[in-house]
């Protein structure tokens, strides 16, 4: 059933998160509100945004070189992949602005 499959994905994402970076804080609804005011995500959309952030922070070694980990955010039509992507990019910008010592604005992103 699809609920068992969803449980496997969530359990896998949680296990990856615990394995990779135990100190990493989960992106919450409040964090999304700070980064992108007026946006409220469903629980499964928050899981997707956290999964994107997890992949963004992961590195792997291939042929002796360190490289970023890539992934695809995919599910059935109409479940909010676009809003998850926009929320993730807003979170990245928010993180950059919080950690940046300069007053320079974050660079724009283009999604085609």
Sequence of secondary-structure elements:
HHHEEH
Portion in helices: 40-55%
| Largest β-sheet summary | 2 strands, antiparallel
Q: Enumerate how many helices there are, as a single number.
A: 4
What structural category arises from helix and sheet content? mainly alpha
Radius of gyration: 15 Å
Instruction: Note the quaternary state here.
Output: single chain
Which whole number gives the mean pLDDT?
Answer: 76
Low-confidence stretches: 1-6, 17-22
Distance between the termini: 34 Å
What does this structure look like?
With 112 residues, the protein is mainly α. It is 54% helix and 7% strand. It has helices at residues 2-20, 29-35, 43-57, 81-99; strands at 59-62, 65-68. The protein has a two-stranded antiparallel ribbon. Helix 2 (29-35) crosses helix 4 and helix 3 (43-57) crosses helix 4 (81-99). The longest helix is centred in the N-terminal third of the chain and has 19 residues, at 2-20. The protein is globular and about 45 Å long. It starts with a helix and ends in a 13-residue tail after the last helix.
